[in-house]
Amino acid sequence: PGFHLLGSVDISRLLRTKRDVPVDRIMETDRHIVLATADQEEVARQFERYGLMAAPVVDKNERLVGVVTVDDVVEVIEQEADEDAKLLAGVGDERLSDSVRQIAPPRFSWLSVNLFTAILASAVISLFDATIESMVALAVLMPIVASMGGNAGTQTMTVTVRALATKELNPANIVRVVLRETAVGLINGLAFALIMALIAVAWFGTEQLGLVIGAAMVVNLLAAALAGIFIPLVLDRMGFDPAVASTVFVTTVTDVVGFFSFLGLATLWLR
Known about the structure:
The protein is mostly helical. The chain contains 9 helices and 3 strands, in the order αβαββααααααα. It has a 3-stranded mixed beta sheet with strand order 1-2-3.
């Protein structure tokens, strides 16, 4: 009479049960309930975690107000995945039907932030203008170091942001994940350091330049791995959505560290 949830009966079991059997003998009382005020993404995670096909929805007084089915959850998962992908690219909640007036201002805001970070990276390059003038090969090779770091950082960042969104990354496994990403960054850094060192020697005929770009590659890929995991974690801890702001900061770190390490080492070794 109070509309409180007592249990549930699968329709297949209901159809297979004789008519004279009371419902309370075939119903299940350990079903997972969903609060009407719960976030839809959290409900989707409950369905995934417990393999649910449907779940009763109750209000704060535990009165039955509805039901959520797996079909509803699939739509939620698609919406959340689409939203995360757009936020990582800094385009917000855009749709193909939106007008130019609706799309341009939000994109301009994020591109303005990116412009500031690009100026910061250029300022680092300007510190070593004399070194670049003395060896043109540095200008040819330094975009490679920054680009590799940016791509490596994006890989780690994407995994981290997704793990935070699905609650897979938590205090219990954070140390293991950090160590794993650090090891991956170090291994890839050493591998690409060897590759680029050989390319630089074959291209410009100087072993010192190969050593410089190899060392810079190790430093930048290691920094990219650490930035890709720590920046989303810090933003999440501060209450910001890591999917929105992580890309700009990770790219900034990889550009600045890449240029500084490459040109700094070149200044020390090639002068």
